[in-house]
């Protein structure tokens, strides 16, 4: 009997399964056609529910045939209830369109919600509708990415690579192989000054990524955009006031794997004086050792506290939606570091194949404290008039301790044989960089919305301060070398250095646009311009504190137990402020443009011309014999552009653009200063010219679904008077060689870009690849055999090479997963940057190249009810080293114990950074 019941039960299940069926469908925005992710789909009769996936799709299995009612709910849309028929087989796929929950009853219309690029479908729509050729990263994509700074976010964009700082974090963007100097950084469409002490490009690691509503990368310009952007533009669009109450907070902690098995080196920075004795007591003051705080000599080595990352954002609208307010606060306290090995060579114009003579082993420990604050207030007087005021402040405080052991091989190429001279150099450095931006804007419409007038008043300031930068040098002879052993002696001065620079910008923008009444087509004529007054102040001073003359040496363990015990006297009591790096400079920019925008059902054309007039000058406060203590340059450029977009159909289009752009030298580059860098002397070039470039772009754009895309583009740039840093002889002194900027004829840069995004239910893939080829010709030192004397005579020869910083191959691949029903979301993101020139040598075939670099990162998030989520991020999982090399080698290098010769190349530098991990909690509330 039991067996009979079993057979009957199995038969019943089989029969039910035979009549069971499944249905599939998609949920879209009724106005934009965008996929809606995370909508709840509920079947009334069966009681089943699910959520839509990355592409807006959903699926139910095991349903019985018949009629049912489907309920679809999403917090931003009105609930949809619709009756459907489930067939035994071949049930058609359903498509449901939702409308916004916000209704305007007076006009009897329903308005769809259009996000400002804060999710992926909105970002794709912005790319599709943009006049310029551009890429957009949405706020949601940033939030779930492994990145916590804008510098690391931007590397995910096609055609973009990053230049890293000493701890491996991204710092500067390189667009389409064009060095960071050729790119412009904007905040809400307005240029911000750079705190960098040398250059005008902005370090993107200042900005916490959670401040952004979206990140835009423009690869072509229109006449109403500032023209100092040959490579492109990075525009950070900050969060704006939402339509209803919004609150979000996250708190995370983490650790660097580098400090799992070693201590973190730090120093006492609290009492570091921001001003030198010269500034505190006057120019005639004679400083003593007591004037220098010993906190920079007071080292500690211990495990660092866990990292801390936090963000708070709150916004709402008041007074019947007339007043909007948003406030954001972000803070990061991170412990990072690296291990670097430098190999110095005797490369010169008689020996292009480097013989390694020194090894420099460095340990970097850095504490980064990053603060970001921003707020925006906007007031709508009525439909035609609106005012807004935006403020942003970012601050990066970096405390770095660098320990370095330098080994000179003394002709013995194996350091294990014989004796080697050693130098132990340690440096403590506190660096504070900050940017403030305040922007008052007005938007006014007249003549039934045909005439639009917009204006902005901008006040910005950027500051860089490096107070009491301290370097200690100890000498010793190797017997069985260990750090801080008693044989170390202090013979060299302890140096204290103060550096500070401030850029203050005051700017005004205006734009006037008129829509010409036409029957079927659209035509808008516009004009506008800007005026910017930039003022820079630069200060540099240093003091040398030497061992007391009566003592032959200071021996560690005998004369002093730690560096605070060094017995020193000031060698230059009035300091060294009288140098060309103490100067004032200014730059006044005036611009005006005329532009047309024509559009019909198939084509859009935007064209016009922009004029930019530049008046740049400097004045050395202490010329001290410089032949050009003051300098100025004035020039005007007329910059045409034309953009065309042809709609093949509703989902695909061709996008082409031509524009002319310029690149202005930075103040540091034109001031005739001389300064000793880590390994060489640097100098400005008062004769440096600005660069001009003609830029061409063509891109095929396919948007098959709201969240998907395929982009394939070509670009070409022809640059006149490109600016490159090379080693050059001093034309005045002749015998000296400096690393300095120069103009070098005409350079060419062209490439191909591919960008692909696709979602299938719970899975998605984002991939891009860029090939770039560039050429520039610069002079190099070499020698040729004299046929008469048979000696090697020095000559200059031209060498053609890629542009500095340009990698031939750049690629990104991200694998995405999202289970909206269970609240899981994650990604595995890989980034590859091919080999590129890191430093240009003065000698033929001796440029320093960076090896191809792969970085693998990951992130995961789990959402819970009531707005809570847990997330984790991991960076640099492969711990790929950053390696620099020169092409070619010398047989003598094979004798070195370490393997530094591979594939015919000689290793010059190797950096290891370690993995970093973050685990956090997020809470979001939307009314």
UniProtKB/TrEMBL annotation:
Family annotation (SUPFAM superfamilies): Carboxypeptidase regulatory domain-like, Porins
Keyword field contains Protein biosynthesis: no
Location (main, coarse): membrane
Membrane listed as a keyword: yes
CDD domains: ligand_gated_channel
Domain of life: Bacteria
GO cellular component, one term: cell outer membrane
Domain TonB-dependent receptor plug, chain residue ranges per copy: 129-233
Keywords: Cell outer membrane, Membrane, Receptor
Coiled coil: none
PANTHER family recorded: PLUG DOMAIN-CONTAINING PROTEIN, TONB-DEPENDENT RECEPTOR-LIKE BETA-BARREL DOMAIN-CONTAINING PROTEIN
Protein name: TonB-dependent receptor
